[in-house]
Design brief:
- By secondary structure, the chain is mainly α.
- It has one domain.
- Helix content is 81%, strand content 0%.
- It is elongated, with a radius of gyration of 19 Å.
- The mean pLDDT is 88.
């Protein structure tokens, strides 16, 4: 068993990981703006999600066609995954939103203030 036989099971299972990641990333992105802008932030995130859902498969197909083999499209997908990994590692190590979220906790949610 290998190749397509594995892909039939593994591709749908990959949705389990994406189902956890998307709302987490979406929530963090929305939380970095004031409450009054949550709807706009959610709209921007959703827009770019839709655009990438259209553009990425087209790019993979175009690269595969241009270079004459599907493996090159998967190399492009691996490059996208590498960029995502590096960005995630950067976010984890430097936590650039820590200050923004701490400030918004105080100004928007009254967290950390005496009652």
């Amino acid at each position: 068993m290998g190749g397509v036989d594995w892909a039939v099971y593994l591709l749908p299972l990959s949705g389990l990981f994406m189902s956890v990641m998307y709302p987490t990333i979406n929530s963090k992105g929305i939380s970095c703006v004031p409450k009054s802008d949550h709807g706009a932030a959610a709209g921007v995130i959703l827009f770019f999600t839709c655009v990438s859902a259209v553009v990425a498969p087209l790019a993979l197909g175009a690269v595969s066609d241009a270079f004459g083999h599907i493996v090159y499209g998967f190399w492009l997908a691996a490059a996208f995954a590498t960029v995502l990994f590096v960005a995630t590692l950067f976010n984890w190590l430097l936590n650039p939103t820590r200050g923004v979220l701490a400030r918004l906790d105080i100004t928007e949610y009254r967290q950390g203030l005496p009652t």
